[in-house]
């Protein structure tokens, strides 16, 4: 079976490479010529464990990339994986999706049967709209949302919790059969297939992400109280998680969620409620708690010093979570901006080289005064980063315990740590003379 994947961003590359590994003949299509060129020579434009190896294994064999839409003529299945960013009002911006649909219309013959699969995260009603745009064409439209976690997206692709497939009607067997063939790899592997209608599939994606975001905001709110009354949020999370109805996942308090999905999807879901004249009471609160969490943490830092002007801080973690170079909605970057704005100097570090590179480039591109005024330094070595600082701030949930804290204690100017992800072994740190401030502990 020949399959086209339109959009070779984060989701598209993984989808294309994954389908190639299943054995299909795959063409990835993108408007960005330099990206296509890089991909065809086996270079992966983003950092994701195991992805470049798989790309190299299949590229120019059963996987190619192009800027032309021509290959979709021979494809039975066409995946749409273009970005759906947030517009200025918080809605999902569907421009790229609709422009891809227009190009499909210009390219395929009306009579040629195709299955168009929407993998991009789209608001309820979008699959229906796309089908409407393709009126008169012999196509079926399928909703197939993704649930890939950055950093382990390749693993997630081959080990999904579930495959969601939304159809116009469950009476029409052909598109269902074709989609089962596409995901035949998972047959007999205990992966539940949820076969449903478009609207349900679309909402499953938003509801799942909003629920996880709500779990995080919930524990973050409890953490504020724990902080005040001298309770330990880590023990609270642990004990709550022992109840299988609650579960221990996504109950880690911190400085809030970031990334390309949760903040945007929560906001887009709020808009969908509002567009349907329903007040999204809980989900709005989830968003608000998240926006406030980082400010609350920054206040904690400010309260300790009184005035941050002229102080130097090591910020450990730049990307929105471990093992990624993705800075989108990164709480670390938000905190860096707050610290810089208060007149302090920041030395930033992340274990992922590309995350450091992206941070430098971002501030340079913005022609930021912070960078050109030399208030921000991005360093390649953690020990260099902590040297002579007035405080260490942890922003990403890496296991920093594996570092030599005796050495760190000798390098810093003042022994104080603000642990925004509650990752440090508090006893050990305190024994070395550090003052410790976590989130709710
Ligand atoms: C998420 C979803 O997990 C995935 O299913 C969906 O398809 C895309 O969005 P991702 O954005 O890669 O994936 O990140 P995830 O690992 O879920 O973490 C999101 C954010 O939540 C990070 O900033 C992380 O630091 C934060 N987080 C996570 C917490 O603050 N506490 C937790 O307990 C878990």
Describe the structure.
The chain has about 450 residues and is α/β, with parallel strands linked by helices. It has helices spanning about 10-20, 35-40, 50-60, 95-105, 125-135, 155-160, 175-180, 200-230, 235-240, 260-275, 280-305, 330-340, 355-365, 370, 380-385, 405-410, 425-430; strands at about 1-5, 25-30, 65, 75-80, 115-120, 140-145, 165, 195, 310-315, 345-350, 375-380, 390-395, 415-420, 435. It folds into two domains: about 1-190, Rossmann fold (3-Layer(aba) Sandwich), CATH 3.40.50.720; about 215-435, 3-Layer(aba) Sandwich (Rossmann fold), CATH 3.40.50.720. About 45% of the residues lie in helices and about 15% in strands. The chain has a six-stranded parallel sheet with strand order 3-2-1-4-5-6, with helices on both faces. Strands 11-10-9-12-13-14 form a six-stranded parallel sheet. Helix 10 (about 260-275) packs across helix 11 (about 280-305). The longest helix has about 30 residues, at about 200-230. Uridine-5'-diphosphate-xylopyranose binds next to helix 8.
In short:
The chain has 441 residues and is α/β, with parallel strands linked by helices. 44% of the residues lie in helices and 14% in strands.
CATH superfamily of the largest domain: NAD(P)-binding Rossmann-like Domain
Instruction: Supply the number of helical segments.
Output: 17
CATH topology of the largest domain: Rossmann fold
Low confidence ranges: none
């Amino acid at each position: 079976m020949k399959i086209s994947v339109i959009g070779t961003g984060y989701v598209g590359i993984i989808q294309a490479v994954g389908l190639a590994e299943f054995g299909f003949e795959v063409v990835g299509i993108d408007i960005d010529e330099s990206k296509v060129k890089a991909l065809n020579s086996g270079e992966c434009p983003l950092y994701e464990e195991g992805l470049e190896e798989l790309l190299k294994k299949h590229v120019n064999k059963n996987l190619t990339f192009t800027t032309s839409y021509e290959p979709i003529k021979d494809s039975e299945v066409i995946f749409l994986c273009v970005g759906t960013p947030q517009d200025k009002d918080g809605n999902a911006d569907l421009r790229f999706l609709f422009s891809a649909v227009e190009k499909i219309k210009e390219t395929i013959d009306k009579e040629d049967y195709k299955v168009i699969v929407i993998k991009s995260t789209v608001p309820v009603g979008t699959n229906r709209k796309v089908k409407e745009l393709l009126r008169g064409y012999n196509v079926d439209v399928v909703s197939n949302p993704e649930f890939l976690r950055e950093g382990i997206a390749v693993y997630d692709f081959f080990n999904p919790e579930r495959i969601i497939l939304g159809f116009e009607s469950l009476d029409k067997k052909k598109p269902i059969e074709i989609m089962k063939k596409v995901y035949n790899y998972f047959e007999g592997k205990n992966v539940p297939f949820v076969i449903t209608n478009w609207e349900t599939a679309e909402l499953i994606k938003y509801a799942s992400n909003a629920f996880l975001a709500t779990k995080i905001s919930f524990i973050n709110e409890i953490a504020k109280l724990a902080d005040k009354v001298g309770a330990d949020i880590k023990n609270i999370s642990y004990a709550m998680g022992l109840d299988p109805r609650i579960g221990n996942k996504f109950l880690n308090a911190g400085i809030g969620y970031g990334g390309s999905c949760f903040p945007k999807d929560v906001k887009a879901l709020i808009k969908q409620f509002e567009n349907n004249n329903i007040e999204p009471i809980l989900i709005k609160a989830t968003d608000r708690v998240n926006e406030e969490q980082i400010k609350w943490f920054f206040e904690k830092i400010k309260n300790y010093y009184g005035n941050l002007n002229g102080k130097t801080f090591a910020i450990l973690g730049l990307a929105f979570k471990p093992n990624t170079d993705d800075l989108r909605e990164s709480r670390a970057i938000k905190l860096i901006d707050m610290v810089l704005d208060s007149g302090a100097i920041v030395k930033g570090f992340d274990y992922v080289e590309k995350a450091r590179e992206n941070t430098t480039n971002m501030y340079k591109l913005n022609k930021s005064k912070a960078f050109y005024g030399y208030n921000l330094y991005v360093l390649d070595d953690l020990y260099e980063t902590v040297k002579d600082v007035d405080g260490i701030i942890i922003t990403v949930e890496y296991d920093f315990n594996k570092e030599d804290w005796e050495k760190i204690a000798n390098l810093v100017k003042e022994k104080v740590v603000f642990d925004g992800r509650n990752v440090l072994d508090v006893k050990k740190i305190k024994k070395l003379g550090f003052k410790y401030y976590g989130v709710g502990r």
